[in-house]
From TrEMBL:
It is found in: Secreted; Synapse. Disulfide bonds join 196-378. PROSITE patterns: OLF. This is Olfactomedin 2a. It comes from Oryzias sinensis (Chinese medaka). GO terms for cellular component: extracellular space; synapse.
Length: 454
């Protein structure tokens, strides 16, 4: 097992395609939540006010809004709950491991002859390093308890709302609204607290589908919170205009139920990202970023990324007009590129999603042409050293401290040619396009938990 310093706790975050995250009918939530029917279609059942209610009654409108809020909260809750459940399992394992080490130490100190002096010292050092973790583990268990409490509150609230349906008017709406607001705020801070960490591992690849050419890009919406389950598919790396929209991950796997969008401006590279219902991409033969809104099928804004190289001047190691890579993480929208004045080293800019203005820029010092791909998790850019077999995550740049370190995080590059690699903060998965295969990876994050002593 790894030894780590007192303030760090290794926590497993494993995501899964988002349809599976929503509550199942057996849990009794189905009236507020999306669930899957027998064909795997995503259904969303909304409880309408009773038939005899006048729809223009402001109270019934307020009630519907409250229900929608609770529906949203319960969806976030399920995601959080699934994560913490897994995290807690990990914590429990770590804890029992520590107890084993501690037990061995006791045996050894009572019967010193069972262990040679070198082994004894090693064991002692190990325990000394593990002990400060105990309060962190306790803290973690408290967090998990808090989530259980929050979950119960959501259940209670949704029960109250269900009752109201039957006896409209008997409740104080203002009080209910306050309860929902409070719950929302607490849930938000809870998610932020448990949300972020440092990448320490990548799972085995999960091949979702084999389709398209060697180069391409696929993804789901990256904004938190969002209940948008559609899958976006962009095959090819230059001068294309066609974007496919699949209704769900299941439809994507089966290659069914899709519609097509034809972009007004062609794209360059595979660095596109879908964020809050819009596709952000690099316009062919320019350093212009385009924001295309899917629902209205229109370009909302386009703006030049000042100084950014384009047209295969500064691509990743695999070429393919990959000069400008757009991505989103827990902190928002980012562009990864380089300029002549940065001598071809990777530059990160945080973008304002409505106007595409650059909010802040960091120079990582890492040569872009020596990077296979890069992706952002919790404000940290991770860079691979190749797009070919044997690639690993080799470099990390922390925007929070403007510092970097070399890393050595292996992953299995199964089809030996990665032309896209992006983190989805909603699902906590890496989306990759590998030689005509659409592949996912789970990630392991090292979580920082502040204890009262620091
Ligand atoms: C629920 O979430 C959806 C999608 O994120 C959002 O459009 C809607 O405004 C939310 N509703 C409420 C009442 O917060
Ligand atoms: C939920 O409702 C039950 C029964 O009314 C109550 O005992 C419990 O304290 C409530 N939980 C929360 C967190 O409000
Ligand atoms: C910066 O972010 C990384 C992970 O993204 C985290 O491990 C580190 O503790 C953060 N540093 C500070 C000073 O917040
Ligand atoms: C998401 O889009 C909606 C409109 O479609 C907008 O009102 C909202 O501010 C956007 N949120 C973010 C974080 O960009
Ligand atoms: C892009 O590169 C191609 C070939 O390298 C060249 O013919 C073309 O003029 C360039 N376009 C721009 C806008 O720089």
């Amino acid at each position: 097992m790894h030894l780590f310093s007192a303030m760090f706790l290794l926590v497993m975050f494993a995501g899964m395609p988002s349809e599976a995250l929503y509550p199942s009918p057996e849990e009794g939530w189905q009236i507020y939540s999306s669930a899957q029917d027998a064909d795997g279609k995503c259904i969303c059942t909304v409880v309408a006010p009773a038939q005899n209610m006048c729809n223009r009654d402001p109270r019934s409108r307020q009630l519907r809004q409250l229900m929608e809020k609770v529906q949203n909260i319960s969806q976030s809750m399920e995601v959080l709950d699934l994560r913490t459940y897994r995290d807690l399992e990990y914590v429990k394992n770590t804890e029992s491991l520590m107890k084993v080490v501690d037990g061995k130490l006791k045996v050894a100190s009572e019967n010193p002859r069972s262990l040679n002096p070198k082994g004894f010292q090693e064991l002692k050092d190990k325990v000394a390093q593990l002990l400060p973790l105990l309060p962190v583990l306790d803290q973690y268990k408290n967090d998990a308890k808090m989530i259980l409490r929050l979950r119960e509150e959501v259940r209670n609230l949704s029960l109250v709302l269900m009752n109201i349906q039957e006896e409209m008017g008997a409740y104080d709406y203002e009080e209910l609204r306050q309860r929902v607001l409070l719950l929302e705020t607490r849930l938000h801070s809870c998610m932020q607290k448990l949300g972020c960490g440092k990448l320490t591992g990548v799972s085995n690849p999960i091949t979702v589908r084999a389709s398209g050419s060697r180069f391409g890009c696929w993804m789901t919406d990256t904004m938190i919170p969002s209940s948008d389950n559609r899958v976006w598919y962009v095959d090819g790396y230059f001068k294309g205009r066609r974007v496919l929209e699949y209704r769900t991950m299941n439809d994507f796997v089966k290659g069914q139920n899709f519609v097509q969008h034809s972009l007004q401006h062609p794209w360059a590279g595979t660095g596109h990202v879908v964020y809050n219902g819009s596709l952000y991409y690099n316009k062919y033969q320019s350093n212009i970023i385009v924001k295309y809104h899917f629902r209205s099928r229109s370009v909302l804004v386009q703006r030049s990324l000042s100084g950014a190289g384009y047209n295969n001047t500064f691509p990743y190691s695999w070429g393919g007009y990959s000069d400008i890579d757009l991505m989103a993480d827990e902190n928002g929208l980012w562009a990864v590129y380089t300029t002549i004045s940065n001598a071809g080293n990777i530059v990160i800019s945080r973008l304002e999603p409505q106007t595409l203005e650059v909010l802040q820029t960091w120079d990582t010092g890492y040569p872009k042409r020596s990077a296979g791909e890069s992706f952002m998790i919790c404000g940290t850019l991770y860079v691979t050293n190749s797009h070919l077999a044997g690639a690993k995550i080799y470099f990390a740049y922390y925007t929070n401290t403007s510092s970097y370190e070399y890393t050595d995080i292996p992953f299995h590059n199964q089809y030996s040619h990665i032309s896209m690699m992006d983190y989805n903060p909603r699902e906590r998965m890496l989306y990759t396009w590998n030689n005509g295969h659409q592949v996912l990876y789970h990630v392991t994050l090292f979580q920082v938990i502040k204890t009262s002593g620091d």
